[in-house]
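Last lecture ended with a question: if I hand you only a sequence, what can you say about the shape of the protein? Today we answer it with a concrete record. The protein is LEA type 2 family protein. Below, first the input exactly as provided, then the predicted structure, then a couple of comments.
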Amino acid sequence: MPCFLRHTLRVGLGLLLALSLSACALLQGRDPLTISVIGIEPLPGQDLEMRMAVKLRVQNPNETPIDYNGVALNLEVNGQPLATGVSDQHGSIGRYDEAVLSIPVSITAFSMLRQAVGLSRVSNLDGMPYVLRGKLAGGAFGTMRFTDSGRLALPKPTDTAW
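The predicted structure:
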């Protein structure tokens, strides 16, 4: 192997090593976002679909802000898909800060029928499990995926003496 080729190979490998080390420094670990469903509001629907706005509280427990340019959601209730939604919202959640996002979701007639059939097999409607999956889009390496799960608590009737 000629001396020139060996020297070029060494310099190339050195540059590659330096670039990979600097890339690792840029891709520092982030703590996961804390996402909570804080409300659901009705929206006008069309034909055989229902529309709702799912309100999320997004908390950023990191030392750097998170910029996003789109949101996508999938909601499952009682182990069955119920609603999906996307939004082209964009913004930034500052370091150690939080924001409330409102994402419109659609519930098709088939999803409602599937839920009704599933509910017919359940003895108690209180405490149905839900799973919310989604992502905050932020470019090639900035997309943050999240999951929130829990149980839906139905409001309890109040005893009032008339």
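Comments.
1. Residues 22-26 have pLDDT under 50 and may be disordered.
2. The chain has one domain: 29-146.
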